[in-house]
Design a protein that fits this description.
CATH class: Alpha Beta
Structural class: alpha/beta
CATH topology: TIM Barrel
Distance between the termini: 48 Å
Number of helices: 11
CATH superfamily: NADP-dependent oxidoreductase domain
Length: 324
């Protein structure tokens, strides 16, 4: 396992992280599988474990916390997030000082921890000034409840405003962002990556395999595999990705992966890690063998000719307006 600094900051994260969004906690067998997956991650050098208060209504935090108790606190980096409603009340969601303070305390209780290494604003809150949110997070760092804070799925303008608040009030820095980034969604390359590089902000990417599209399990002209995410995911994110254009790209990318002797998943993960500004990719694994395969992406370098071929296949066109 290879490790990278979080932007310009001193903490180091494993290039491959384990996320809890899709962790199945329904039944003893499922919990045993999730526990075996986390143990394998530790054994293979993964030190970054990502969670959120909203995952399974807090159950994911409690489950992850129960497993982390078996390991020394200094040996891992754990994160959680705040924003989505955790109750029916008017202050049970968002990024107000009240909700952040209360929900952070609840996350620490859920996980049985004294502090979180990373803490993210899960989404932007249009009802709360960014100044209020950032100053509250600064206070939480000062209180020792979190070490580094960041945001997830904020726009370039919102990130820039947050950085401006930090600079104006001389607050503890916004150190990390957690955006969606994969071969089929390269939005952050247009502005956000440059913004992070200029300010030393680390990037930990979620959904690096595009909801499973970039595993190769969904093939053109073939039925959706039984039991796959596309058969049961409530919000149908993966189903919306199964377009003819995307499936054509998958077929071509599979050929590149075959030529390099790796799986499509390893190709997709190492393609993200080609960017030095990316600290870690957050993978979801429902079984230990899935994680085992994904770990091969750490340290794998895609040859330049293959990168050029991938660019032709993806045919990405940045959203840039040229004037004059």
């Amino acid at each position: 396992m290879q490790y990278r600094k979080l932007g310009k900051w001193g903490i180091k994260l494993s290039e491959i992280a384990l996320g809890s969004w899709m962790t199945d906690l329904t039944g003893t067998a499922a919990c045993d599988t999730a526990k075996a997956t986390l143990k394998l991650a530790f054994d293979k050098g993964v030190n970054f474990f990502d969670c959120a208060d909203a995952y399974s209504g807090g159950a994911a935090e409690r489950f992850l916390g129960s497993l982390l108790k078996e390991y020394p606190r200094h040996s891992y980096v754990v994160s959680s997030k705040v924003f989505f409603p955790m109750g029916p009340g008017p202050n049970d969601g968002g990024l107000s000082r009240k909700h952040i303070v209360e929900q952070l305390d609840q996350s620490l209780i859920n996980m049985g921890l004294d502090y979180l290494d990373l803490y993210f604003c899960h989404r932007p809150d249009p009802d709360t000034p960014i100044e209020e949110t950032i100053r509250t997070l600064d206070d939480m760092v000062q209180a020792g409840k979190i070490l580094y804070y960041g945001v997830s799925e904020w726009t370039p303008a919102q990130i820039a405003e947050a950085l401006g608040v930090v600079e104006y009030y001389k607050l503890r820095p916004l150190a990390v962002i957690q955006p969606q980034y994969h071969m089929m969604d390269r939005f952050i390359e247009d502005e956000i990556m440059g913004l992070c590089e200029r300010n030393g902000v680390g990037i930990t990417c979620f959904s690096p395999l595009s909801q499973g599209l970039l595993t190769g399990k969904y093939r053109k002209g073939q039925p959706i595999p039984e039991g796959s995410r596309a058969t049961h995911q409530a919000d149908k994110q993966i189903n919306n990705m199964l377009t003819e254009e995307n499936l054509n790209k998958v077929e071509q990318l599979l050929e590149v992966a075959d030529q390099l002797g790796v799986s499509l998943a390893v190709l997709a993960l190492s393609w993200i890690l080609r960017k030095n500004c990316v600290t870690s990719v957050i993978t979801g694994a429902s079984r230990p063998e899935q994680l085992e395969k994904n770990l091969a992406a750490s340290g794998f370098v895609i040859p330049e000719d293959a990168l050029a071929e991938i660019e032709k296949i993806l045919d990405y066109r940045p959203n840039i307006r040229r004037i004059g």
